[in-house]
Every structure is written in C-alpha cells, then in structure tokens.
Amino acid sequence: MCVNGSLSENKSTHSDPSQANSHIEIEGKVLAVLPGTMFRVQLGNGHIVLAHISGKLRKRFIRISTGDTVKMEMSPYDTDKARITFRARDPNAPVRRPPQRRR
User: Fold this and answer.
1) Where are the alpha helices (DSSP H) in the chain?
2) DSSP-based three-state secondary structure for 56
3) In this protein, which residues make up the domain named S1-like (predicted)?
4) For residue 31, what is the enclosing H or E element?
5) 48: closest CA among 83, 80, 88?
6) Cα–Cα distance for residue pair 103/21, rounded to 1 Å
7) What total of structural domains would you count in the chain?
8) Does a structural domain hold residue 38?
9) What's the gap between Cα 7 and its chain centre?
10) CATH number for the domain including 32?
11) Is position 98 within any domain?
C-alpha cells in the first residue's frame, strides 16, 4: 500500500500514447556519407538534413551509400536531424551476395 496516493496516480504521465508516434516520416536521397555512420540527406523539397542509422539497420549491417533512397523519421521540433529507418532497394542494382565464410 502506498503512503502517498499521488505516487501511484502519476505513473501514466511518462507514457502518453498520443505523443509516442509524433514523428514525421519522409523520404530522401543520400548526398554524402560522413564519419560515425552519419549521412547528409536531401529531402524531396530540397531541404538537407543530417541523419544517422537506426538500431535495426546497424544491427543487421545494412550498407547505405551515396545515391541511395532512404526513409527517415524526423522530430517535428528539430527538422535538421533525422533517423534513417529503411533503405529502398534500387531495381537496377546488381544482387550482392555476402562473402562465403571459411570453416
């Protein structure tokens, strides 16, 4: 039992479902690859942002290079930075196979 009733009532203030999905999803084209897995990306309207790779892309070793089309998430409060969440496949690019592992 809680001595102070306000402690148990304020649990929901940290997780508001309406603000959990308040990011903007947008597509862009990679202009430059920068150190530290950062990228300079141009949006469809001509705006240039600084973007970094999301955790899933980093975990799965998805390679992103200049000229790739990517989907990003941006905060409505800071439109100069973004997180890359998806790399679109180029239909004209050759299929790359991972190198064979030696046993």
Assistant:
1) 5-9, 17-20, 55-59
2) helix
3) 25-89
4) strand 24-34
5) 80
6) 45
7) 1
8) yes
9) 35
10) 2.40.50.140
11) no
> pLDDT at position 69, please?
94
Which of 12, 17, 80, 21 has its CA nearest to residue 52? Answer: 80
| Strand 24-34 relative to strand 48-53, pairing | unpaired
As given in the structure block, the two tokens for residue 56 are 């899933």
Query: Which of 72, 75, 65, 68 has the alpha carbon at shortest distance from 86?
Result: 72
- Are the beta carbons of 39 and 51 closer than 8 angstroms? yes
pLDDT digits 0-9 by tens, 21-57: 788 999 999 999 999 999 999 999 999 999 999 999 8
pLDDT in tens, 78-101: 989 999 999 998 777 776 677 777
| Residue 37 belongs to domain spanning | 21-87
Is 21 or 58 the better-scoring residue by pLDDT? 58
- Predicted TM-score of the model (pTM): 0.69
Q: What is the dihedral of CA 21, 53, 44, 48, to 10 degrees?
A: 110
> Is residue 60 assigned to a domain?
yes
